[in-house]
Amino acid sequence: MGIIVICVLAFLLYLWVQGNKPRIKGHVGEYKVKNILLKAFKNPNATVFNDITIRLNGDSTQIDHVVICEKGIFVIETKNYSGWIFGNERSKKWTQVIFKKKTSFQNPLHQNYKHIKFLESILNIDIRLCISLVVFTNKCEFKTNMPFNVIQSKNLKNFIYSNITNKLKPNEVRSLTSKLILSIDNNKFNTSIH
């Protein structure tokens, strides 16, 4: 009888995983990027927010990562995709190819633009303070020239430490961090405040 119960539970777990694969896969990619961000921003004037939801005028958006630091506000969309990735800055859809199977998905730069517009409105900031970044995990290969702000996770730390000039003073970082904390839906978020 015990073996039957274990088999049934294993089968149910398998079905649950199959039905939730995209969500699980997304969380795995976000976890990898989160760890890179936490290591890269180990200073007192940086806050890393992960998996936050913001509501504005009856609409909402979920943002994978937001980093508020002296360099500005990094707004990061994570994609845990494998295979070949085709896309450009202006296309509405990008394409993922695994063997001969093609799948289209929303241009993540457009997706991230919505996130930035929410932050611009909620934080009452100049949009130029935001640094839009799309991070794919290392399992994919770009088959078209990508914009400078579409990278793989192996290049994330270098991007962060690149020659981005500081846009915010420490007191502005603290003020914007406080504003964002108050704006997050039900204050449910995963953050690291140093």
UniProtKB/TrEMBL annotation:
Official protein name in the record: Nuclease-related domain-containing protein
Listed InterPro entries: NERD (IPR011528)
Record-annotated NERD domain positions: 25-142
Organism expressing this protein natively: Flaviramulus basaltis
UniProt xrefs under Pfam families: NERD
PROSITE patterns assigned: NERD
